[in-house]
Amino acid sequence: xxxxxxxxxxxxxxxxxxxxxxxxxxxxxxxxxxxxxxxxxxxxxxxxxxxxxxxxxxxxxxxxxxxxxxxxxxxxxxxxxxxxxxxxxxxxxxxxxxxxxxxxxxxxxxxxxxxxxxxxxx
Length: 122
Fold this sequence. Notes:
about 120 residues, 4 strands, single chain, alpha+beta, two-stranded antiparallel sheet, 5 helices, two-stranded antiparallel ribbon, about 45% helix
């Protein structure tokens, strides 16, 4: 239960190691395996998202509503960006031609391209 409290009490993106340290600072010892097993359960139930920030850093996001992330390389901080705040103002030249080549409706293709561009934010 303490793992869930640590994870859901703030809108942060903690790693498993950070969760383990916080739980152990607040109460009795919890094993690393317990933290990972609990996180895996939360993932399966759709309660959190796993974000691979880089190959050496995986964090967990308790906000499962549609949103994107901005990653500050210098501080390592992840900031949530609501879907409604993402706007694609232009596409690279040839993007619609590429979409037409794949027999997609241009408007639907534009939405997929916009979603893919937004996903680059994480």
